[in-house]
Amino acid sequence: MAVLNYDAQDEKKGLTVWDKLTSQEKEEVFTFCEGYREFLDRGKTEREVTGEVVKMARDKGFCDLWEKKGLKPGDRIFSVNRNSEIVLAVVGRQPLENGLGLVGAHIDSPRIDLKPEPLYQDGPLSLFKTHYYGGIKKYQWVSIPLSLHGVVARQDGTIAEIRLGDQPGDPVFTITDLLPHLAKDQMEKKMSEGIVGEALNILAGGIPVEGDGVKHRIKQGVLNHLRDKYGIVEEDFISAELEAVPAWPAKDVGFDRSLLGGYGQDDRVCAYTAVRALLDMGDNLERTAVVLLSDKEEVGSTGNTGMQSAFFENFVAEMLAARINSYSDLLLRRTLSSSYALSADVNAALDPNYEEVMDKLNSARVNRGVVITKYTGSRGKSGSNEASAEFVARVRSIFNSAGVYWQTGELGKVDQGGGGTIAYLLAAYNMDVLDCGTAILGMHSPFEVAGKADIFMTYRAYRAFLKNI
Predict the structure, then answer these.
(1) Average per-residue pLDDT in the chain?
(2) CA angle 435-440-445, nearest 5°?
(3) DSSP secondary structure string, 290-332?
(4) How far is CA 94 from CA 88, 100, 284, 316, in A?
(5) 345 within 8 A of 270, measured Cβ to Cβ
(6) Is residue 443 part of a domain?
(7) In whole angstroms, what is the distance from residue 433 CA to residue 429 CA?
(8) Is the Cβ–Cβ distance between 252 and 450 less than 8 Å?
């Protein structure tokens, strides 16, 4: 199957992946993306995504690594880290020290977090103080319906799960904005200063409790509701992980439904396609295939659930110990160094409304296939991993042989900005790594848009890589 490699003639013809698909393949695209749309709605936080992936994996015969006493070719295993990170593997016939085939994505997304002491009263309203997470445009998060997701750990160790604002009949939350009639000074500010972080306060309630002796009666009304419905008290907020995310569901976009819009596609589009690629594969593999879904990428991959933690390395060590009934640090180093990885993360699609920030010859387009990115970083390739020519050629060959339509792209003009992925952290193990993912419009916004043909080609790309690397 020919590659869609866009030159001036292709641009003039306006070719897309849709031009190359058969009627049956087009139906496959829509069917696949319906499952992905449902996944987006069920998993709006890293905890929820992890839980969904565990269910998907168990349905396909995967079990927790700790449930196995040994490993043999064909075994399907997973391991979960603090309910916010997960790694899955199908054991191949080759010794692990010959290297793994790895697709690594992240499952955290920009959002609004509640502060440790969030609840307060101001006049006739009760509100939550917040601290935004990741790179957001703050003005995009005001005057939209928000839902509240997360967990509250009580002092006795029990957990209250909260998910409110997504279902029909649920109340929603919101951050108010200033009316235009009084916003003259605000509108003269730079966009980055029009809404400040400390002003992202979420409306939480407005009915006071009865009794003149009660201080902050409206705040107390909210606390009473939380006590009655969830069994939590104000101090429990300190041991909580509560995230405000857009309340709306993922939706088809356009008359022809060729696009899909929703929150958190960076990077859950790559997470879902990678997981599906692994789950849909058979057990007869040469090289052990691994999918890693990490947390905290949007804030630097730090912490014990981020890519900089030892979780992935420890998982590989445990696999070695279970596979050959022995372990050495040298074997672990050989296994990691011999591995091949795709850093599964999205890239920016060329937006017709903002073409001036992109190099059109080196930009990804919507519905023109999965994007391979030789390097990321910013300006002088700072903070990037650059894949070797030989490894890029190998991945191209795999994609071309498997009928995967692909394109290449950079993240904007050289001096404009840029971004990073987990690629450089995987490359620190001395493995070959290439960035590869779906092109996105409106990245980091509350409603990101992806082409359905690109989503399906991302799935095909990861499946081909894990099977043939």
Answers:
(1) 93
(2) 120
(3) EEEEEB-GGGTS-STTBTTSSHHHHHHHHHHHHHHS---HHHH
(4) 17, 9, 11, 15
(5) yes
(6) yes
(7) 10
(8) no
Model's pTM, two decimal places?
Answer: 0.95
> With bands split at pLDDT 50, 70 and 90, how would you rate the model's confidence at 10?
low
Same domain for 317 and 456, yes or no, is yes
Distance CA 279, CA 269 (A): 15
For residue 87, the domain's CATH number is: 3.40.630.10
Please check whether residues 127 and 101 belong to one and the same domain. no
Per-residue CA distances from 216 to 116, 125, 130, 419 (Å): 19, 10, 20, 45
Sheet of 259-262: strand order equals 251-253, 259-262, 448-451, 439-441, 347-348
Read off the amino acid at residue 10.
Answer: D
Answer yes or no: do 17 and 131 share one domain: no
Q: Do 134 and 80 belong to one domain? A: no
Give how many domains the chain has, as a whole number: 2
Please write the tens of the pLDDT for every residue from 294-322: 999 999 999 999 999 999 999 999 999 99
Burial state string for 320-345 with b = 16 or more CB within 10 A and e = fewer than 16: bbbbeeeeeeebbebbbebbbbbbbb
The angle at the Cα of 335, spanning 333 to 341, to the nearest 5 degrees, equals 110
Instruction: Write out the residue range of the structural domain in which residue 167 sits.
Output: 112-246
Residue 2, pLDDT > 50, answer no
Task: Give the model confidence (pLDDT) of 40-69 as tens digits.
Answer: 999 999 999 999 999 999 999 999 999 988
CATH number for the domain spanning 179: value is 2.30.250.10
Q: Which pair of tokens denotes residue 236?
A: 């429990």
Question: Is the domain of 169 the same as that of 51?
Answer: no
Q: Tell the residue number behind the tokens 């890293």, with chain if given.
A: 46
- Tell me which residue of 466, 142, 85 sits closest to 305, measured CA to CA: 85
